[in-house]
């Protein structure tokens, strides 16, 4: 090694081994943070009761396959995968032997499930005294709702998000995805990392009773404060906003949509200039921001007309000039040109991107957000990386999501220490199912 070269830095969680019993969304994303930053995370599953996310699409060629779910794959890259039949008489003992080698245990079952298996925190720390265990059910381990099971769509309703999603004159409709699944893991990961730091300093493990419900509430912004301080109940506004006008999405002639959010007088002045200062912008009821907040429907009507009339399809002529209009010629714009025009006047706006456009987004490409990994069943696919980059020890997606039981032999022979004979015996008896 040349004198000026430095050895590679140790990854933040290198040397940490995680037994990952968690499933679906929140739990697997928490352990993925550790896996992408050096931890050896072992997904513990069973083919007798497959993980729910393995049964969720999209699937390759739309053919359901427990090893072909893109949803599962994106949440479980960088991990190893084993299968153990908990109901087999020899299954629990094999789990105990594995847990003896693990620093962290993650699970997201309904409270009491791990205890029925014999792996509640008190039992696990008899196996590994300094273990850190985090339980991540919907509502925590205690309370009148603790025994309720469900997924993110249930949680976002219980946590109040659906109250704010929908149109003013319509019912709560929720979000298109389980929104809380992409908010809650950040809180759980922070709690787990804090416990790891505590163990590093003291040598002591601990139990983390984590409530997805309580973490989700932090995403409600000022809604709860507005109620407790002002007695004001915020509600559904569609695409509108309490502090900005216009604040909406507008359809261009090519079928694409542009979003605009004018929160300040400077934004509004820029929008007027970009539009060519039409008369309606200078009406008395449009002169102040608080007035425009009450005129959002009127603003939307004018902007909807503008976007329909002043945008063009790619197949149309490059420039269409309207004659007889004083001042600069009026032209029609492509969707991209509309955004460039508005942004040049300081108007906050952007194009609503499709999945295909997101995949080819130049900003994400520049940041190397997507990783390409070769999956045994799905082939070469892209995976999301963490949204942050550590300058000295950046994340690394080391392997695609595991097939069911893909790493049984490595984990149980190399880590647990089974002999070849014992491994074959357990396999023959159906313990690895």
UniProtKB/TrEMBL annotation:
Gene Ontology MF annotations: CoA-transferase activity
Q: What InterPro entries does UniProt report for this protein, alphabetically?
A: CoA-transferase_III_domain, CoA-Trfase_fam_III, CoA-Trfase_III_dom3_sf, CoA-Trfase_III_dom_1_sf
Q: Which residues form a coiled coil?
A: none
Q: Specify the superkingdom.
A: Bacteria
Q: Which PANTHER family match?
A: SUCCINATE--HYDROXYMETHYLGLUTARATE COA-TRANSFERASE
What keywords does the record list, in alphabetical order? Transferase
According to UniProt, the name of this protein is Benzylsuccinate CoA-transferase BbsF subunit
**Which Pfam families does the entry mention?**
CoA_transf_3 (PF02515)
